[in-house]
Amino acid sequence: MTGTAGSTTNVKPLTFRSTLHPDKDLLLKKLLSLLILAALVLAACGSGSNEIAATVDSTTEITAGDVEGLIELGDDATVSKQQFADFLDFRIKWVIIESAAAEDFDITFTEEEVAAEADLIVEANITEGTTREEFLAANEVTEEFLLNAAHQQLIAADVRIALEADLEPPAQEAVDSQMENIDGLTQVCTKHILVDTEDEANDVLTRLEEGEAFEDLAIELSVGPSGPNGGDLGCAAPSGFVPEFADATLSAEVGVPTEPVQTEFGFHVILVSERTVPTEQDIIDGLNRTALEQAFNAWFPEAFAAALVVVNERYGTWQTDPAAGVIPPVE
What we know:
Elements: H1 27-34, E1 52-56, E2 60-63, H2 64-68, H3 81-105, H4 111-125, H5 132-138, H6 143-165, H7 172-180, H8 182-185, E3 187-195, H9 198-209, H10 214-221, E4 232-236, H11 243-251, E5 261-263, E6 266-276, H12 280-306, E7 309-311, E8 317-319, E9 325-327
Antiparallel strand pairs: 1-2, 1-7, 3-4, 3-6, 5-6, 8-9
Helix pairs in contact: 1-3, 3-6, 4-6, 6-12, 7-12
C-alpha cells in the first residue's frame, strides 16, 4: 500500500493533525510533549556519537549520533539524560512502527511523500514572518526529526485505513441495543425562558405570539442562569436535563415554543431549534468508529511489545509494562 497523502518570539509550538495516536502512553502522544520542551539543560549523556544507544530486533542499531541528530542544540547546551531518553524512545518506536507497518499492512512511503507531509506540518504551524529554520529551532528539533514525525503521521493514517478495511460489521444485537436507547443518543438544541408561575409562562407565550423575540424575552424575564444569554442552553442530550424538561425537548415541535412545562425549578417555555435523532445507519457508523479506535489503540502497544529492544545501560532501559518506553538511567 502506498500512502496518500536560534529562538524567535513569534513561533508557536509544533502540533500535528488528528491522525496522531491519542493514547498518552504511546509514541505519538509523547511526541507532542517533546516538541514543547522549554530548553535543553546541561548533563552528561554519553561520550561518543558512534556509540550504540539501542538495538531493535537484533538488526537495527541506533547510535547516540542518531539521537543527537534529532535535537537542535544551542551553542552552549547539551541534552539531559531524561531528554536523551525521550528522543531515544522516539527513535526506537519510529523504527518499530516503520517495520511493523510494512510487515503487517505493506505500508511504505516515498521520500517525496514524506517531504510533502513535513511541508504540510510546517505550513499548519508556522507563524507568518518565521523561517523554517527558526520554526525548527524554536521547537528545538531538527529537519530530520520533522521528517521522522511526518513519516510516522503518514503511517498512523494508513494503519487506521488498513485496520478499518479489516473490521467485521457490528453484530445486529449491538445495533438493536443502541436503537433501544435512541432517546439517550438524541441531541437537542434548546432555549428556554424560566419563570416562577404558570401565569407568567402564559404571558411569555402571548408576547411571543405578538412577535417579540424569544431571546429578548429571555433576557428580560428568565430567572434561570441562561437568561442573560437569551435562554440558550446549547445542544446536548436530553438526558442531561430533569425528566420533565427532557421529555418536552423530545416531543416539542421544532421551532415552536412549548406550552408551560413545570419542573422543580419553576415553569419553562422551551424552544427546540434542532433535534437530531440517530438513524440505524448512524448507530452502525458509530459502532464501527468505536471498533476502529479500539483496534488502532491496540496496534501500537502490540507492535512495541513484540519488538526485541536492548538499550545501552548508559542511556537507560527499555520497558514494556505498563507501557513501552525508555527509562533514563539514575542520575
